[in-house]
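Task 17 of the worksheet. Students: predict the tertiary structure of the chain below and write it out as structure tokens. Keep your answer in the requested format; marks are given for formatting as well as content.
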Amino acid sequence: MIRFTAIGLLASVMAGCCGRGPESLVPDTPSAAPDYLCTWNLQGYVTSYVSNEMMRYAMNEENIFGDGEYCNWASLYEPIRGDLYFVMDDSWDIPQDENAAGGNPYLGTTELSEDRFPSFRGEPAERLKALTKRLKRMGWKGAGGWICAQKPEAYASMSEEEYWTDRLKDAAEAGFSYWKVDWGRDATNDAWRQMLTRLGHEHAPGLWIEHAMKNDYVVFSDAFRTYDVENVIAQPVTIQRVANLLPYKAQEGARGIINCEDEPYIAVGLGCAIGVMRHPFAGNLPDGRQDDAFPPVGHNYKRCLDEVVRGVRWHRIAEPFAVDGDCAVDTVRLADSWELHENETWNKGRQVGTVLRESAPARVSRRMPLPEVADTSASRPFVLASRYPNDAVAVAAIGRAIGREYVTRAAAVTVEGSDWEAPVGLFGRFGEVTVVYPDAVDAAAVEVWGQDLAGDTPVEITSEVRIEGNRLVVPGEVIDRVGLMCASEGDLSAPGMVLKVRLSAK
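Model answer:
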């Protein structure tokens, strides 16, 4: 079956040629980043996206843990489960047969549904704790859930503070790790969202509370989600949304992390968290139609699972960091377009033949100057770069949607480095990457190592790079080779590697 084939491919990402050799450049310890797998598109796939009501119906114990076709979602992403929270999307907390959105009296219940999850018994905190423990035993970092931004009708007489304090205390007792707070009556209620964060920090300090909807919420958020996109033109939309958030500065006590959803290379290029939405159930939907959430065109997400592994594992080296206003955004913009064919978007308001047009800054950086890009063509990549708080530097070249192609031109890029021995992450296709450091070194005293972030074996590449005073030049063919050394069979992801310089004499 497709299910076992796809999961088998993903589980083998770090096997074979990528068995352990010299000491890995990627730590064994999972990161503390708030990265997660969200189940919404799994709910959609198993129901062929027939309706939101059916997708909500699919949120239950059988689909998460069962052994039926397209079930056992908790078995996905084995190589990086320890780095990801398993976030149950819409309807884990309401009765199995109450799946309407409008007028649903149960929305906001925030208790594990007893009929959806019959194996988990006891009081609300006990049920949630048992589920969390099961997911952790399967290797996940922890459990999380989608939260409707409203109090259910049954608690109308209870104050907002009292109701949400009780729910947060249950989450803390259960060891529940993530609240993905979305739409609802209070979705754009500034005071309500601030209250929820304040109560969370007081009563459930280990819980990540993710907000969305208004950009200025990022300043008090633990995490802020850039929200849904159409995948055929997701790159410029996501880059622009992140760029809009970067000038903000997190308030004291706020974690202020941007979650740019299912764009791992944009995430690492701009210091963001990852909300994984893609999954390895490949091919058409169960009803035979093309999967319009992940159409097999353009940037074919479900054949790019390796990039998820690489992005998540980079966070073991350098974790996402809070918005602090220290950013640079190019005034030059690049315009993408995509002519829609049938079943290429979940947006039912789109007509076949519509040309989607979006643009974004050509370059964006955080805590460092904008990268220099030699290519000035209209089809050049978006280039993103960040210096992380631990001095690691990440550079990402992001492909373009042009016409009906996903274009990945290999441009020569120059970026400012921090320290010669700080890790450098290179994501995407490049003509070459030049890292310029504050000081020159003796080339004879330098070793340079590279490693596919999907694997655990570094290779020495000293003879394949150039050291010219204070400049390190890495040819594009080296990035392609090393950054794809552990590529899964049939995977279409762009390269993703970590580079480490070792100075034998200082």
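Marker's comment: Residues 102 and 184 are 10 Å apart (CA to CA). The chain has eleven helices and 25 strands.
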